[in-house]
Design goal:
The protein is mostly helical and 103 residues long. The chain has a domain at 20-71. It is 91% helix and 0% strand.
């Protein structure tokens, strides 16, 4: 089930990145620097932007760690049971070949 949410998580990361870039542009280009309300709002927005970037960085690290663990687990399995790995690889290759032949 975790693999079905990964594309959604990737899209969420892309959306958050776009949002942070847009917010950075807005903060750089708008407002009256002499207005106290603008200064407070800008400070709050900059802090929120910093927090989002930190969380996004931590999430990316988590995704990388999980992917790395999955690769190590698969590698260990193939080393322990090489014929199973060959069978799975052959089956996947056959299915992909059949799907491509249908086109």
């Amino acid at each position: 089930m975790a693999t079905s949410t990964e594309p959604n998580e990737s899209r969420l990361d892309d959306d958050l990145t776009l949002l942070t870039e847009t917010l950075e542009e807005v903060l750089k280009s708008s407002g009256d620097p002499a207005d106290q309300k603008y200064i407070e709002l800008k400070t709050k927005a900059e802090q929120a932007l910093h927090d989002v970037k930190s969380r996004l960085s931590e999430a990316s690290d988590t995704y990388y760690y999980r992917a790395k663990q999955a690769v190590y687990t698969a590698d260990d399995y193939v080393h322990e049971k090489p014929w199973h790995g060959i069978g799975v690889g052959a089956t996947v290759g056959l299915v992909i070949g059949l799907l491509l032949a249908r086109r």
